């Protein structure tokens, strides 16, 4: 971007250039902004938020996977992982995360095509934000300047900056982090979005870096380069030194400190980031798809039961055209769902259920336009007609010039959205904005430039439209049932596909469709009408408020309806939400009633799709969801037209006409969706079974699916009137509406549906299983996906139902204290899997502590490692200094008192407390009161009673999701010769690092007599020892050194080759875990009891009491009709 486009100022002492003093910002944004460029060319966006209780920073580096060397795919991603592992100033690999956790913070990073983004968030204050906190010894006001050594943000910035100044790339962390990369890749191997993204990339132009494999795995980042003689640590350091330069970096810092203070810290801490004056990365003149890649068709098989057709076009990079954004005009029309649209026509034909369209910049210099259509079974058969309908619509767009009114309508909506944009969490802001800074926007338009439309450029729209031609696209048809046989497998994910040129006769039909005249096109295709949902009234009456109200008021409380209301008193935006719960026991009676409820909700949404789309793009959304307590209807957005949409939804619910063709299509979609739930990543599935296990009445996907084949349209037609006939209605009206508005909305709901009173004795009661103290249960379940190699464990320790506040406080503090140590031990050090998490889990009224791991290692092994960590944590707790314990309390208190960022967050909080039937609106403040008084002795007693594996009062359940595919099964499918050769090559490299020269072919010959596939570690060691003595002429000391480390090395090496080491459980535990305490677990009181029949198990367990209100409802009533 040209420097003269920015606000530029004279360069002050220190070499800092001020690029912008003010940014164009939303109407209610009370933050102050400044953009500066440090003397090393590092650009920094400073954000002063005087009211924030969270601080954050993010660094976006202009290098990503597109810069990977061809023979080291995933290099940029690996560097992202390794960068966190210690710096010269802070050499401890965990110093950074320990510091953040102490202040209730966290960090993360991601690698994209052309950038790598690092960010963190933590408390803005080192002391408690509770006004009465005993944890706060030296209270500080937000307005008082704090010495930098007491400011959490300064300490975090100091540690963060060093990653870009002098990272260590510690040798002893290298292997572990590459295994983390490998685990991350394996997590995604059965995920369709990753599989089809890579298929598209792999079939793209080899001249463009888009075609690369960006994640990396252990083989390509470790084994292969070592085999080639590459010193991989040096390679990573070289990549870092070659691409990481201050002038390629964009830093965003958000804090409550003044702009001058934030700037001073940025100068102090980040000026030492080396500047190599590298050029900004561009790929001009390269197309994602070249002439050989277009006019092609791909047929691909998914893991889940998807039916999709994706149309991909090469498209210009429009980032320089930020004022007009021409592709927005096209994607708005192509992706429209209202009357006249592509989707409306395809739905009427019974061919499609959904459509998405949009252009994106792949990298500076090239882009793509992508259209995805969700097909029905008939649509799959008619995929050629679907493609022709798309090009018919494009032909219509090309027939007439772009319309100014369409642009202006979109422009107005974007203006309104930007004007009333609300805050998001601190780290979301900094991560997003540091990425935006890489774009060619004037610095004073960093906030607005990405949203608003200020120039109507019809010629640019036409140029974009010209790219939507039959000679510039390819399509991918995705389904388990394809019209052709697949004949290829994608290299990195194994996706089965067939790739070929579009047959000449079909391409001729497409070309004809793209040139069709109005008489030749379906008459149902036309431009949308003007949007009647564009908000007109955007007035907000802002009143002075000493403190925002913590609770809504109960403004109607009769036998059949309760209405909760709060007029917004802190965000002052012209938005509102109406939440309605229609309470009924009918939806949770059986799996059949549950699935009829789901079908009813989907049919209502399906029938409203054309009507509601205009409301959606005008910032007004609705949703219908079914659950055990009944039906939830939510309408949220600009309040101007909100009652109109709500009434339409209610009328359609009441008067729904179920057409057989739409029923059949919806049933087919629901069936596929329910079956697909069992093909998700294991860590995404497991919570379903954990909740099912402890809830009194709940149903899982397989129970729902059993009922679907026999379900008819008449069943649903007869069912939903019975549901609506008798219900209790609960509403929350919140936002820019008045009390009279809320009462009118209540009247409208009741008048429209006219439900009979449902007596409280018939309301569904939320009850959970009371897992007895001293019990230990395990529910094992096999994954449906035969190709998923990941196991998953949900290890839960239960405290009980409706627990007292002091026990809840201890649970929250224990979760806070153990979050980082658990991750550090089980993920970072032991590398059990990429997905490792721990924390408090609350299922209805049941409170638990939960550890979740997804891993290639089996669940029994994971159980042992979790319990080993839990045992070891006792000493950590005993050794914890009092100051650190108090810091954990402060971090948790500040987390519980974190300020709401927007109206939606407050609505969600209110609604949670309403539907819980506990009405505990001030829960966060009650938590703080009980956290403040906790002592380390309290936590030790809590730990010994509820967490320690030897505790006789501990209550444990675990869900084990077990993979069908094991490393042994994989090994069985691998050629034994190939296994021997790979093992010999790997061992040769390891021996080379120990100073022992070996020849892989001769070593492989020695291994011929060993059953390598069975993981015969002793046989492999014997053969290796013989070779070293007789074939390699190694010294006795060298042989002893190798043999002494042999078991440990093989325990790490063999699984990477798809071989399970044939070692005892004790040997595996001792040898497979890096740097863990080899302590003996305490003797268990009893073995875990397997749950074979969930229904029978639940029947044998006691049930909890239902939810209890913390206060009488009369405390919340405000039944007067006045404002």
TrEMBL record:
GO molecular function: metal ion binding; metalloendopeptidase activity
Native source organism of the sequence: Baudoinia panamericana (strain UAMH 10762)
Domain Coenzyme PQQ synthesis protein F-like C-terminal lobe: 813-911
One GO cellular component term noted in the UniProt record for this chain: mitochondrion
Key word Nucleotide-binding present: no
Similarity section: Belongs to the peptidase M16 family.
This protein's name: Peptidase M16 N-terminal domain-containing protein
Domain Peptidase M16 C-terminal, residue spans: 233-409
Keyword Protease: yes
Residue ranges constituting the Peptidase M16 middle/third domain according to the UniProt record: 418-706
Keywords tagged on the record: Hydrolase, Metal-binding, Metalloprotease, Protease, Zinc
Entry-linked PANTHER family: INSULIN-DEGRADING ENZYME-RELATED, NARDILYSIN
Residues of the Peptidase M16 N-terminal domain: 44-204
One GO term (biological process): peptide catabolic process
């Amino acid at each position: 971007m040209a420097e003269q486009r920015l606000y530029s100022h004279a360069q002050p002492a220190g070499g800092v250039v001020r690029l912008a003093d003010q940014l164009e910002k939303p109407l209610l944004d009370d933050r102050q902004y400044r953009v500066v460029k440090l003397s090393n060319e590092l650009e920094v966006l400073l954000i002063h938020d005087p009211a924030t209780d969270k601080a954050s920073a993010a660094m976006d580096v202009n290098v990503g996977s597109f810069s990977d060397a061809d023979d080291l795919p995933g290099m940029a991603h690996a560097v992202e992982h390794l960068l966190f592992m210690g710096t010269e100033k802070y050499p401890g690999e965990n110093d950074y995360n320990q510091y953040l956790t102490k202040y209730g913070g966290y960090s993360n990073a991601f690698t994209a095509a052309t950038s790598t983004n690092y960010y963190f968030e933590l408390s803005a204050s080192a002391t408690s934000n509770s006004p009465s906190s005993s944890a706060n010894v030296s209270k500080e006001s937000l307005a008082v300047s704090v010495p930098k050594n007491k400011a959490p943000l300064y300490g975090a910035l100091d540690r963060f900056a060093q990653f870009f100044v002098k990272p260590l790339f510690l040798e002893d962390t290298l292997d572990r982090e590459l295994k983390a990369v490998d685990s991350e890749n394996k997590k995604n191997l059965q995920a369709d979005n990753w599989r089809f993204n890579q298929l598209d990339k792999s079939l793209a132009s080899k001249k463009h870096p888009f075609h690369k494999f960006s994640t990396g795995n252990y083989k390509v980042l470790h084994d292969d380069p070592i085999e080639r003689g590459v010193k991989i640590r040096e390679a990573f350091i070289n990549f870092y030194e070659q691409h990481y330069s201050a002038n390629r970096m964009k830093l965003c810092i958000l804090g409550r400190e003044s702009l001058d203070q934030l700037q001073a810290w940025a100068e102090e801490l980040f000026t030492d980031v080396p500047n190599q004056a590298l050029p900004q990365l561009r790929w001009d003149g390269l197309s994602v798809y070249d002439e050989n890649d277009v006019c092609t068709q791909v047929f691909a098989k998914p893991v889940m039961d998807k039916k999709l057709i994706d149309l991909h076009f090469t498209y210009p990079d429009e980032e320089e055209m930020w004022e007009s954004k021409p592709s927005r005009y096209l994607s708005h029309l192509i992706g429209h769902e209202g009357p006249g649209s592509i989707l409306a026509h395809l739905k009427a034909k019974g061919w499609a259920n959904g459509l998405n369209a949009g252009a994106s910049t792949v990298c500076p210099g090239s882009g793509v336009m992508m259209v995805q259509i969700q097909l029905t079974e008939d649509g799959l058969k008619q995929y050629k007609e679907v493609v022709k309908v798309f090009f018919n619509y494009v032909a219509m767009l090309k027939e007439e010039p772009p319309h100014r009114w369409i642009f202006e309508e979109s422009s107005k909506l974007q203006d309104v959205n930007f004007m009333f944009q609300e805050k998001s969490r601190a780290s979301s802001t900094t991560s997003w904005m540091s990425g935006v800074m890489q774009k060619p926007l004037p610095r004073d338009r960093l906030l607005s430039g990405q949203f608003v439309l200020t120039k109507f450029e019809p010629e640019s729209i036409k140029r974009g439209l010209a790219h939507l031609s039959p000679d510039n696209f390819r399509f991918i048809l995705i389904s388990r049932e394809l019209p052709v046989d697949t004949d290829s497998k994608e290299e990195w994910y194994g996706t089965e596909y067939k790739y070929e040129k579009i047959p000449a006769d079909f391409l001729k039909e497409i070309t004809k469709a793209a040139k069709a005249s109005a008489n030749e096109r379906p008459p149902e295709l036309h431009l949308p009408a003007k949007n009647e949902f564009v908000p007109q009234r955007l007035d907000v009456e802002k009143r002075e408020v000493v403190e925002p109200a913590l609770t809504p008021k109960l403004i109607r409380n009769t036998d059949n309806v309760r209405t909760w209301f709060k007029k917004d008193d802190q965000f002052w935006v012209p938005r509102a939400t109406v939440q309605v719960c229609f309470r009924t026991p009918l939806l949770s009676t059986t799996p059949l009633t549950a699935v009829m409820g789901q079908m009813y909700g989907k049919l209502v949404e399906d029938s409203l799709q054309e009507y509601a789309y205009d409301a959606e793009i005008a910032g007004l959304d609705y949703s219908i969801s079914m659950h055990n307590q009944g039906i939830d209807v939510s309408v949220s957005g600009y309040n101007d037209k909100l009652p109109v949409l709500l009434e339409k939804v209610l009328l359609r619910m009441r008067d729904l006409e179920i057409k057989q063709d739409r029923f059949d299509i919806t049933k087919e979609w629901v069936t596929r969706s329910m079956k697909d739930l069992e093909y998700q990543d294991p860590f995404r599935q497991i919570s379903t079974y954990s909740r099912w296990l402890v809830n009194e009445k709940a149903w899982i996907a397989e129970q729902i699916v059993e009922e679907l084949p026999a379900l008819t349209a008449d069943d649903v037609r007869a069912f939903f009137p019975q549901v609506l006939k008798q219900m209790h209605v609960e509403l929350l009206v919140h936002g820019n509406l008045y009390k009279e508005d809320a009462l009118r909305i209540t009247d409208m709901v009741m008048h429209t549906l006219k439900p009979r009173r449902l007596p409280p004795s018939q309301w569904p009661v939320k009850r959970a299983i009371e897992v007895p103290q001293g019990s230990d249960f395990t529910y094992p379940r096999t994954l449906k996906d035969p190709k998923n190699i990941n196991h998953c464990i949900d290890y839960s320790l239960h405290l009980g139902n409706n627990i007292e506040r002091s026990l809840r406080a201890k649970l929250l503090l224990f979760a806070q204290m153990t979050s980082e140590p658990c991750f550090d031990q089980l993920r970072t050090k032991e590398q059990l899997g990429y997905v490792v998490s721990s924390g408090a889990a609350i299922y209805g009224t049941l409170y638990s502590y939960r550890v979740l791991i997804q891993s290639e290692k089996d669940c029994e092994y994971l159980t042992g490692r979790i319990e080993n960590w839990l045992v070891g944590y006792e000493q950590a707790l005993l050794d914890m200094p009092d100051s650190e314990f108090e810091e954990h309390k402060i971090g948790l208190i500040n987390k519980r008192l974190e300020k709401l960022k927007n109206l939606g967050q407050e609505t969600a909080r209110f609604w949670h407390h309403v539907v819980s039937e506990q009405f505990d609106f001030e829960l966060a403040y009650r938590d703080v009161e009980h956290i403040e008084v906790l002592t380390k002795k309290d936590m030790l007693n809590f730990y010994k009673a509820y967490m320690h594996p030897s505790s006789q009062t501990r209550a444990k359940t675990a869900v084990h999701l077990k993979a069908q595919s094991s490393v042994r099964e994989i090994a069985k499918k691998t050629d034994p010769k190939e296994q021997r050769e790979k093992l010999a090559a790997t061992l040769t490299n390891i021996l080379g690092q120990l100073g022992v020269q070996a020849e892989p072919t001769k070593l492989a010959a020695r291994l011929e007599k060993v059953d390598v596939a069975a993981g015969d570690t002793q046989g492999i060691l014997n053969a290796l020892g013989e070779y070293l003595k007789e074939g390699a002429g190694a010294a006795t000391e060298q042989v002893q050194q190798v043999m002494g480390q042999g078991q440990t090395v093989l325990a790490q090496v063999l699984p990477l080759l798809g071989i399970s080491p044939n070692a005892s459980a004790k040997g595996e535990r001792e040898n497979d875990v890096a740097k863990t305490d080899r302590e003996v677990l305490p003797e268990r009181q009893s073995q875990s009891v397997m749950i074979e029949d969930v229904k029978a198990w639940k029947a044998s367990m006691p049930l909890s009491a239902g939810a209890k209100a913390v206060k009488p409802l009369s405390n919340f009533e405000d039944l007067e009709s006045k404002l």
